[in-house]
Amino acid sequence: MNDGHVEPASTVLLPLDGTRQSLAALPVARRMAELAGATLHIVHAAESTLAPDELRERLVLDADTLAGAVLDAVTGAPAAGIVRLAAERHSLLIVMAMHEGRPDADSGLGSVAEGVLRTAPCPVLLVPPERLPAAWRLEQVLLPQDGTPGTATAIGPTIHLAHRAGAELLVLHVAGPAMAASEEAGALTVPRYMDQPQHEWPAWSREFLDRVRGMCHFPAELDLKLFLAKGEPGAEILRLAAERDADLIVLPWHGSLAPDRALILKAVIRDAPCPVLVLPFKVAADSG
Q1: Do 188 and 150 contact (CB within 8 A), yes or no?
Q2: Which conformational region is residue 76 in: left (phi greater than 0), alpha (psi within -120 to 50 degrees), or beta?
Q3: Which of 87, 103, 113, 211 could form a disulfide with 109 if both were Cys (CB 3.0 to 4.6 A apart)?
Q4: Rg (Cα) of the chain, in Å, rounded?
Q5: Residues 271 and 178 grouped into a single domain
Q6: Do 165 and 257 have their domain in common?
Q7: Hey, which residues does 125 pair with through a beta bridge?
Q8: pLDDT tens digits along 129-148
């Protein structure tokens, strides 16, 4: 009987299609499930119902890999089935390879990954398919910010994740032509002297950190570093991620993948050196 009560999120959903590329997401999903105290739920989208042994064989999964995980299959359109199961299982996160399905030239995502991202009821963690299926550490988390309340919705969830993982949090603000002054109420704009940011950067960074501490619980032991860069945001995010050997990039997202939207997200996804956690603004705000 449904009394209107919604069970708390307790699963991390991992779609696998049987390819080596999709298996690259397995260690990432397992680690995220451990950090959240959630059950890893592995799902395969198939044209017809498969017996358990046939399903394990198709996904190339042995008993050790499946230890502590739940294995399931959905039929029909893959993206729709994955999203439906995520909703049914109250998943707090979907982890999947970026290129599951035919790649799209604009988004840089596979057709299944893009379909899941567009309609998922929870954040989606996209894993580069080139990543080796080895153990995944989470020691450096990179969070780009542009000073607007919209992107600031990702701060709380990211601080919580970094704290649970014992990771260092790297916050990046990019100043440049693509970062026009925001008209969004409450925006914390970039320092005025873009060619000589040292004039205002110390005061700006103190104000930014004060806002972070004021908008969410900020653990005293969390190691947070603030970076300022000048140039195209996507390129600067990728540069710092490679330079600092980041294990995860967290990007807030307004929810549209139209050709003229989400340009920074698309640029990062196309060349990301590490997994990218996409937090839709509303989901990030609700979980923060």
Answers
A1: no
A2: left
A3: 113
A4: 19
A5: yes
A6: yes
A7: 95, 277
A8: 887 777 899 999 999 988 77
